[in-house]
Structures are given as structure tokens and as C-alpha cells.
Fold these 3 entries.
Entry 1:
Amino acid sequence: MRQKRIHTGAFVFLTAGAALTACSAEDSTVGIRNAADIGSSTSASAESPYLVKIAQNFPSCEAIGATLERYIDGLTPAPGGVVSPQRVNCVWEAGAGEPPSGLRSVEVVVEPETVTPATAAKTGLVVVPDSAIEAAGGFAHSMPINMAGTAFTATGVELPQASVSITVGGRDAAMVLDPAGGVAVAKQLLGL
């Protein structure tokens, strides 16, 4: 059984640590992401009107990055980023040679699969109330983690036919996106 990508992102970030400076996004995430289960009844082949809108309004990872400008400042786009009507996967990482004290990364993933509130509750995600998302038939959730020397937040928004995951982490807690900020970025991408 595969896990929700927000947990996969947390696992990758927390276990990879300093090794991320030596690895590309393709090396560190492709195998894990391909093994991740969203746990949805929504078909991956179904076209999502939200993904179509995102691809029209934010046609590149650079455009997606503009919504996260403060958090990606100084980071390098990872190769293989994609923005399409089927999927968004944009990653920014610390450049080669970055000192471990500056290690940080940002990932934005949007897919047509979604999870249910019950699944989110079982996995320990914290539901973030938001009236606009709830009015659209969805819910927002977050998983903030603070450990010695590392701060990390994974925020998700689940709507019918769209799941947005925004993961921001690093050694500097001031550069980590808070849950409300992650929800605001997701809403901007979704046009809510």
C-alpha cells in the first residue's frame, strides 16, 4: 500500500538531510513518488478543471515559484519540473556546495487524486479550517514538524479532482511556510 505524498515528502526531507546537497531532485524523489499512494477513488486519468486552470495561469515552475518567492529565494530549480493539465511537480533546492546550515528545499505538487478527511485524520494530519476551500467541497490540512536544527511544514488542500501539496523545510525556521501561508498559496494556485 502506498502512502500520501505529504508523508513521503516529510520522509524524504527528514531522512535525506545533508545528502540532498549531493543529489538531484530526480535522484531523491522519483522512486519514492512513484511508490506513493494518494488513496483516492478519483481516477488519475480524469482531467481536473483545477489542473487545467493552474496550467493556464501558472504555465511553468518559475510562475508557480512566484507564489512562493520569499521561500525559494536563493534556491535552484531542480531539473525535471513539470506544469501540465495532468500534474504539477516543481522543486527548488539548495545549490551544490551550500553549507549544511543553509540546507532547505521547497516542493509543490498538484495532482487529480485526493484523500478524504477520514484518511487525513487517521494519518495524524491537522485539519486547517478555511471557508473558501470548504465551500468548494474540500478541506485543508497540515503537518508541521520541528526537530533540533530542522523545521518543516507540509500543507495540503484536497478538493474534488485536485490535491495540492506544498512542502517547505530547512534549517532556518524563519524560512518555513506556516500552515496558513501554505493554504493561502494553494488557494492562489487553485483560483479560490
Entry 2:
Amino acid sequence: MKSTQQVKPSEFSQLSMVDKPGEEKISENKIIVEIIKKFTQDKKYYVIYNGPMKGIYDAWEKAAPFTHQSKIVHKGGFLTLEEAKESFREYEALHPEQTLKRADKAPIQVQRTGIMRNIPTRVEIKEKKRVCRSNLKETLNIVLNWTEEKRTSLGYYPIAKEQLTKLDSLMQ
């Protein structure tokens, strides 16, 4: 069986055709530029315009997990990175209220409301546990001025009052 199909020269075999006699000589630069264009045309860029993961992605697999929310605006199929960047800039110019930076957002401590405000954060707990002169003096005053009325209202009482009186004399 004879094959009737003729083998077409690929882009890479065209480089070897440059020096063949009788063939039209093509400059190596033009061939390289054509090869680069074909490789970049296969690659598409995707833009997520808003949301926490907004930006330009070079593969749909990277951008897809962040597009499932209903308010996320995205577009794909840009052939060049420049087109994608230009589209992203145009969207930011048209929708400036959605382009808040993280630094512009309110800090976490300000956002705490209601019951959450009463729950101490880890930083506040560590600060209370840290031993310093003011904390020690405050605790010492509570223990030294302890009465049965405080025990009934607070529900606990100090154990070693004698040891703390020695600390009081050292602190003054």
C-alpha cells in the first residue's frame, strides 16, 4: 500500500529549508517570530475583575475555583497578556468602588460587634497574663483587701494571703 498523503513541512523543518538551493529563502527571524506567535495563540489569559482573588490568570484551571460565586465578574480568551491587562484596567476605571485595597478595609478589631466584642482576643489574653508591676500590684490589692462580701459576690477567695503580704512590703 502506498500512501498518497504528502508530508507537510512543519515549522521546525522550515528552519532547515533556509539554506536549501532552489527554495525561497526565508529569514530565520521571521520563522522564529511565526513559531512564537503560534505558541502564544494557543495560550489564553483569563481575568477575574472583582472578588478576593481578582487578577489575570494564564490557565483556566487556576482561575476556575474563584469564579463560582454569583457576584464574581470574569472573562476569558484573551490571546495576549497585554489585552488582558488593558481589559482589567478598563474595568477598574469603570468600577472604582469595587477596587478597594486590603489596606483600605477596616481592621479586624473595628469590625468586632455585639457579643463578639465581649470575648477577649488572644492578644488581650496574653496581655493580661503578662507579669508586670501594675498587674501584680492590682492583684495584690485585691487579695490584701479581701472580705467575705467579695467572696460571696465573686464566688472565690485567695488561698495564701500571708505570702502576698511579703510581696507587698517588697514592692513599696
Entry 3:
Amino acid sequence: MVLNTQQGALDVISIQKRFQEFLTEFRVGEEFVYKKRINEMVANHERSVVVEFEHLIDFDYELAKTIQEFPDYAMPALKKALLEALKMIDPEYAAEIYEYAVRNQQLRGVETFEEAASLIPLNVRFKLPQSSLIRLRDLGAQHVDRLVLVEGVALRVAVSKPFLVIPVYRCMRCGFVQTGIVGLTEVFAPTKCPRVSEEGQRCNGPMALDSSSSYSINHQRMLLQERQEELVGGVLPRGVQALLTDDLVDKVKPGSRVRVSAIYRAYKPVKAQGERALDTFLEVNYLESAEKEFESVELTEKDLEEIRRMAQDPWLKEKLIDSLAPGIYGLRDIKEAILLALFGAPAVVLPDNTRVRGDSHILIIGDPGTGKSQLLQTIAKLVPRGIYTSGKGSSGVGLTAAVVRDAKGEFMLEAGAMVLADGGVCLIDEIDKMDDNDRSAIHEALEQQTVTITKAGIHATLNARCGVIAAGNPTFGKYLRDRSVADNINLPPTILSRFDLIFIVEDKPDDTRDRELADFVLRVRGQGKVDVPFSAETIRKYIAHARRSVNPVLSPDAAEKLNGFYLEMRKKSDTPDSPVVITTRQLEGLVRLTKAHARMRLSGVAEAIDAEAAIRLYNVFLESIGVQTSSGKKVDLSTVTVGKTSEELDTMAKIDKILVEMLALAGANGVLEADFRIRCKEEGFSEKDIEKYLKLKKAGGVLFEPKPGRIAKVKS
């Protein structure tokens, strides 16, 4: 057995002895903490014990210092100490571990202390104190080969693979066995057999890896990136590769925020010989979740006192609206809707485990220069986990998730904006510019709040539990009132219907409003500040407390109010020719907004006043899409939910019925398009309706031309 020494550190025997004493003797009060944890490890058939580093510092500062500064030197002794402690606590389980290690040691011809310890299937995991946290961008040469604590977002996660710890090579000619030399990232394998016969002849046979004799553990690579809130404008996020091994594998999903204790490694890539720069990675020793949502914002007793005082203010809502994006003039209804989206409602889990989202989605469609982008960017800075992205600049990875290849050619699962915003708010600018891949992927993320990926042998479901506040421009540059909502918004109806509220912002000349806007802009730009009732930090803390502490339920009065509104609006659709006014999806949205309004008041019960506020915003939404509900004009929500009015849908269905009847009498060559047009006109349909039907069905692949001038339906 070879014992190495490290200058300024305890010797290996002292490390083993003192750490064994720590495991068996450290206690808090009357409880022996690590004896209990070792017993739990055995009971759960686990291989790792988590050590609170602060406990180790209190027990033996010199030992803790050696472990943090020289982890590679100390780790083999720590594993042996854990095995010895296990012998005292559970001799039978320890005997199994010891026999396994000895058997592997003999099989592989291991001689060094470090290699022998690496065969012990036990791990010591260190949870470093929060006070030792280092930012990813601050990692430098002084941290190499030291145990460090960092936080970040798991942007990419690869599939797990075997990782060689002790590679064994066997001669294909004579059977001679030799272990390879293991570096940080590569194995130096013998190419020719070094065995020399009694006659002095060298074998020189080819050496091949003997997988069955080699010792491997599972490993997984991930890309750890700086958290969004740590970035200063214009700075690219720092990313570091991290290596997970053994029982840490598959503990992290893309988009998760994690805190890791790891050894910071630096190495020279094989292909970069001659260069002076080194590549780096983190060899993870321990990890835990570090999710930072609204609920994780720290509040002092003084903060709580201020929050309680704010909740008693009868003008609270108006003051919150005044304080939200104060540099943007007007848009009070939109700001109120955004506030309710930030407060959110509790998610509901039904008896069959179906999850009904509590986050509201808001869509703003506006003419250029109406402040949409500035509004979204302001909100992104307000929330702890606000991810701002652009539909135009986002690939399929950008909004949801995707399987990508890394520099080594391996497949990795990468999280997009909505997954990274899990537990917060995703703000999507220029949502109308999304490509087709995003349009198909975003459906599940908006309603189920999950992203499912099945590609390249990877199947995963990632959480995207976030509210979405999106903005876009009208299809024709400006919103045209003589066109339908679906015509004006370049989004499929299936996406539009998933937004709880849609607002149209138009830039129309208005002498009074224009004068007020000009005065506001000149005053704000001239003074460089706006007086607001509450600071952004105060709003953040208030929302955090509300989301953490208040989970409203609907009162009978609120439920009756919503039910009455729903039935009243549905009555406008009680005849076949009436338009669709409201559906159950919009009713669910009203419930979310009602509960969010109650949460804003810090009320555990959503009252009638909350339902009235939600109904008012819903009516603003209906008026925004071109309907004056106060005048009694009927609303057709089909223009949003399916992209056509009920009248248009009825016309399409009747024309389709005519074609089905004609095709039933025709042969395989279909019917003459001219005859079909004549028949439709005889039934009272206009040329415009017929042309629209044919264009829609041909583009959708429903109709085809078996011969020139003839049409037929594709068989389903």
C-alpha cells in the first residue's frame, strides 16, 4: 500500500482515524447524527452519507480544512473511515461491502491505497455551508482541485453512461492483464503487451479493454449555467461542464436550479496539446435543489409588518398598478391583469391526479410603439424567476426544450425559456414570429405546464409551471377592426384559446390622450424618475408573501357570481344562429383570476368583490377584441378559439355536406369542381364562401384533384 503525503495537510492515517471518530462520536444534543445517518443508509440500501460541513468544522477544524483544500488526497481515507464506522454500526452490511472491495482489488491487481479505496462502493458527500458560495464566473485558478460550492441552472443534461474508474486491458495473444492509467478526462491505454517470456522475448500482442474485469460507475454530464438574476445587462452567462457520478446520476432535470459541492478541475484536452489554456469542469460531490421562486424571497419581521399595513389599504390595487412599470403611460387594465398573473392562483389537483394550472396567461397584441416590449422587460426584472425571450429569436430549444448534440457529438437534453421559468413567469416578446416547431411544442407547455421530449432515445417530461405574459404585433402591421381577431393575430386558434385574457392596444389619434401622453413622456424623460407608491422590491416581497401564505378558496357568493355571469353569457348562444360567447375554458380562467385577486388582498377566501374584478377584466378583453358588451352586442368567442365565427363554421359545414352528397353519387374520379360550384350557388352560398371553402380544404390536405377540374376527398 502506497501512502502519499500533501504539504500542509494531515497524513492519511490521521485523516482516516479522525473522520471515523467524527462519524461515530459527533452528536447534536443526545442524538448521534451520523450513526443515525449510516443506519438510514443501510436501511434504504444506499451507498452515500451526507456530511454537514459545518458539523465537521465544529468537530475538527484542521480535518475540515484538509478535506476542502486537498479533497483528492483525503477522499480515499474518508471512504475507508466510513467503511470502518460501518463495521462498528452494522458489521454484517460492512462485511458485504468489504468482501466486494477485496474481490475487485484481487481481480484487478490493484496495489495503491487510492485505487483500493476507489473500489469501496461507498461515498462521502459534503454539504458545504451557504457562506462559502462562489459565483460561477468567479471560479479561477485559485480554486482548482479544491472543494467549492456553486449554484446554477442545469441548462443541458446528457444521458448516463458507464465511466471507467479502473480500466483493465488483456492481451489478445497471451492473456496478460494490465491496468490502464486514468487521467481526469481520458484513459491512457497500453497498445502492445509488455509481457516478457522466460526466453527474453517480448509478446507485443495487441491489448484490448476487458469490460467485464474493468471497474466502472455510472456518470452523467450536465452544463451548469449562471442564474438569470445574477447577470448584469449585456453580460453573457458563464457556463461550466459538471460531472455527476454513481448515485447522483439522473437526479437533475434540465431547467432545475441546483446547489453543488464539487471539486473544480482543470485539464489539457488531448486535441489541444501545445496550447497554454486549460479547460475546466466540476466533479460533483453533492447536489441539492436551489429553486428560487417568489416563495423563496426572504422576509424580515419589518417586511411582514409593512405587508400587513399595505393589505389594509383600501387603495392597494390602484397603488400597485401605479407602481408597476411606472415609466409606461396608461395601460391600467393590462397592468392589473399582469398583477393578477404575478399573484397567481393555487394549482388544483383533482382526485384522478389531473393537475389544473393556477397560473394565468396574458396576451397583448398592439400596434408598434405602444410599449409592449418595455412592459415585458420591466416585469422580467421584477420577478425572481422571470425569463424574457423573443419568439423571433427562439428556436425549438428557445421556448420549450430539445435534444441537441454537444461538442463531443453526444445527445443532451436542453431546457428552453418556459422550462427555465418553472415556478416564475415567462415573458415572450414577438410571439407572433414563432416558427412552426415552437407553435406545436408550446401547446402542452401552456395548458398542461409540462414539456415532453421523445427523440434520439431520450424520453423525458420537464416541468414548465409558469405564467406566460406574451406580446406580439398585428398581422398587417396595425390592428384592422374590419378583420377578425384570428386574421389580425398570426397565431393558431389552439394557442389563442389557451390565454385567459387577450388585450388589443391600438395607436389611434386622440387629442386629449395624446396631450397627456406627451406631457408624461417629457416629464419622465426630463426628470429621469417617476414617483411611485411602492418600490419594485416592496412589490416583490408583497407578492412573495401572498404566494407563500395565501391559498384562497371560492366562497359561495363568488361562485354564484361567476356562475350567473357564465349562464348569462351562454344565453346569448341559445339558438343555432347565435355566436359562441363563453366556454368552460374561459370559466376556468375566470376562477383563476378571481382567486388571484383574493390573494392580492391576502384573503384566504375569494369573495364576490374578487369575482366582480375578474368579470370586469374579462369584459375588457371582450371589448378589446372589438365587441362593446355594455351595448348588448353578442360576442362570438369562436373567432378566438377556432379562428372563425360560428356563422362561418356553420357555412363551412353546410358546404361540406353538399360535397359529401355529390361524392356519394360520383365514382373514384370525384366530381367536377364546376358542378360543385353550381350546386352550392343553387343552395344560396356566395362565390366568396365557396372559394374560401375550397382554398381551406385544399390547403389542409382534405381535398385533392384526381384529375384536372375534378375534386375528391382524401380518405381518412
